Amino acid sequence: MKKKILMVSMPSIHFFRWTEQLKNSDFEVYWFDITGGATFNKNLDWVTQFTGWKNKWNYPGRIFIKSKYPKIYQWIQKLNEKDTNKEFEKVLQLIKPEVVHSFALQISCLPILDVMNRYKSLKWIYSSWGSDIFYYKNLGVIEVDVLNTLRRVNFLITDCKRDYYICNKHKFNNKFLGVFPGNGGVDFVENVKALNQRDKILIKGNTNDIGKGLEIVKSLTNSTMEFLNNYEIIIFSGNEEILRYINSKKYFKNYNIKVINESITNDKLLELMGDSILYIGNSLSDGIPNTLIESMGMGCFPIQSNPGNVTEELIINGFNGFLISDSKNINEIKNHILKSINNFELLEKAFGYNVSEIRKKYSRIILKEKINEIYIQVFKKN
Question: Could you tell me which residue ranges the Glycosyl transferase family domain spans (predicted)?
Answer without folding.
Answer: 244-349
